[in-house]
């Protein structure tokens, strides 16, 4: 064994303690760490030849790279829809690395059984029935991709071909309908060989709504004259967290032949709140479902889950044909259900967090985030120079400048807030108007944090107005 590696093995308990102390110091100051940083990255260094050992690597990281890391795990990082890592989830994630289980199959370990237990818990958490089977994947993009891959195979089944065997060219024209699809949906269609341009937008409800007009969706399905289709519904759009009427869409199956895929990346968590659970009424009727766990469940990157009613088709798409892996029978190993053969045990962090805090603890996070989003929405409405772009439906506040909102002015506003280190927000466009989004999903966020974000926005608006930027 290389002497440096051998020395690290001999000192492993001390090394782990050193890392533990380092991480504890970082996390204890997370609330005051600059949420975003403009620090210049260090110049790239040469590949180490001999190496400096684990403790030396930790010291070099602390010196060269740590200062440029953002506070994205903290309470005022409101960009995208980014959770943090609950203490229990972080515990599970550290142990995931320590045990280093390959979660692809049984392989002499109970790791796959733990994943199945966790999937059962998640299925119950979101109100899904026994017909839905799931698997962990890396994120919402991969979850949507897996769901749409199964939908593609279903289309082939309807037309008497096997896409997994004959290729997408044997499928013929593909019809994909959606109102406000996330960008990962078109990315998935490109990846799957269906093509981005096969997505046909369906008109939305009026006003600031992002929900599909179910009547217009019915007309689009009628126009297909019996051709099978894929409908991508939304349970929580990224701009305003609007929800399609899932129950009404599912009812259209009585008249039309389509696969219903629901992108519920973070909107599925509305099921945890009695006040908001009606928003996901009908989710159980979906043929495939995307849920992202490193958002509102607050487990570390990367973790998402994918559910489908047709696991037989999923196996047909993803099964690994190899003598040493065998033929998938009975309960298929996970390597037959996702694009990955090798995969870390992503389920462990989720298992820890659900075991530690249960339904009630995670429901509290959801309801608190919703209350904080509304608090910020009310605060923004009172800031001169800002206005809400849409009502606050759930956990995202979409807002813009009151006068002449151009992309340049919104970028300057977001840059000023990020430059203050107080918060981080991401830009968007809602119905043609540039805007900013503040997404609440971090378990650490408090009312005091929310007020600091409001105040940072107010200062930024005043500062840019004085400078002639707004």
UniProtKB/TrEMBL annotation:
<dbReference type="InterPro" id="IPR015424">
    <property type="entry name" value="PyrdxlP-dep_Trfase"/>
</dbReference>
<dbReference type="InterPro" id="IPR021115">
    <property type="entry name" value="Pyridoxal-P_BS"/>
</dbReference>
<keyword id="KW-0663">Pyridoxal phosphate</keyword>
<dbReference type="InterPro" id="IPR015421">
    <property type="entry name" value="PyrdxlP-dep_Trfase_major"/>
</dbReference>
<keyword id="KW-0210">Decarboxylase</keyword>
<comment type="similarity">
    <text>Belongs to the group II decarboxylase family.</text>
</comment>
<dbReference type="Pfam" id="PF00282">
    <property type="entry name" value="Pyridoxal_deC"/>
</dbReference>
<dbReference type="InterPro" id="IPR010977">
    <property type="entry name" value="Aromatic_deC"/>
</dbReference>
<dbReference type="InterPro" id="IPR002129">
    <property type="entry name" value="PyrdxlP-dep_de-COase"/>
</dbReference>
<dbReference type="InterPro" id="IPR015422">
    <property type="entry name" value="PyrdxlP-dep_Trfase_small"/>
</dbReference>
<protein>
    <submittedName>
        <fullName>Pyridoxal phosphate-dependent decarboxylase family protein</fullName>
    </submittedName>
</protein>
<keyword id="KW-0456">Lyase</keyword>
């Amino acid at each position: 064994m290389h002497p440096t590696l051998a020395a690290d093995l001999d000192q492993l308990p001390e090394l782990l303690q050193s890392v533990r102390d380092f991480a504890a110091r970082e996390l204890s100051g997370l609330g005051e760490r600059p949420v975003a940083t403009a620090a210049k990255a260090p110049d790239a260094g040469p590949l180490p030849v001999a190496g400096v050992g684990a403790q030396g690597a930790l010291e070099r990281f602390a010196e060269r790279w740590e200062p440029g890391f953002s506070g994205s795990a903290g309470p005022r990082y409101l960009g995208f829809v980014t959770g943090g890592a609950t203490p229990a989830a972080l515990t599970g994630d550290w142990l995931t690395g320590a045990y280093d289980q390959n979660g692809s199959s049984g392989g002499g370990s109970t790791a796959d059984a733990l994943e199945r237990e966790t999937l059962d818990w998640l299925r119950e958490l979101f109100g899904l029935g026994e017909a839905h089977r799931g698997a962990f994947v890396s994120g919402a993009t991969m979850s949507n991709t897996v769901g749409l891959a199964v939908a593609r195979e279903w289309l082939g089944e309807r037309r008497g071909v096997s896409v997994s065997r004959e290729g997408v060219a044997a499928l013929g024209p593909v019809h994909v309908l959606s109102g406000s699809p996330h960008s990962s949906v078109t990315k998935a269609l490109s990846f799957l060989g269906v093509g981005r341009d096969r997505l046909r937008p369906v008109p939305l409800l009026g006003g600031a709504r992002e929900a599909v007009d179910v009547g217009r969706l019915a007309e689009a399905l009628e126009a297909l004259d019996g051709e099978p289709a894929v409908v991508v519904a939304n349970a929580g759009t990224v701009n305003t967290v609007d929800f399609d009427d899932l129950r009404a869409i599912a009812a259209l199956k009585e008249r039309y032949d389509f696969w219903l895929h629901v992108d519920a990346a973070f909107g599925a968590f509305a099921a945890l709140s009695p006040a908001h659970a009606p928003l996901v009424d009908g989710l159980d009727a979906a043929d495939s479902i995307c849920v992202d766990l490193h958002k509102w469940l607050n487990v570390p990157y990367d973790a998402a889950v994918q559910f489908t009613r047709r696991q037989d088709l999923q196996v047909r798409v993803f099964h690994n044909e190899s003598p040493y892996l065998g033929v998938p029978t009975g309960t298929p190993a996970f390597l037959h259900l996702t694009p990955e053969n090798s995969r870390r045990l992503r389920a462990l962090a989720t298992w820890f967090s659900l075991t530690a805090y249960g339904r009630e603890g995670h429901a509290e996070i959801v309801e608190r985030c919703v209350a904080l989003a509304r608090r910020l929405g009310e605060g923004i409405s009172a800031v001169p120079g800002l206005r809400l772009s849409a009502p606050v439906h759930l956990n995202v506040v979409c807002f813009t400048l009151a006068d002449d909102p151009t992309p340049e002015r919104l970028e300057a506003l977001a840059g000023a807030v990020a430059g203050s280190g107080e918060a981080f927000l991401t830009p968007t466009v809602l119905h043609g108007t540039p805007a900013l989004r503040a997404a609440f999903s971090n378990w650490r966020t408090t009312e005091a944090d929310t007020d600091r974000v409001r105040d940072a926005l107010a200062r930024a608006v005043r500062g840019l107005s004085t400078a002639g930027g707004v």
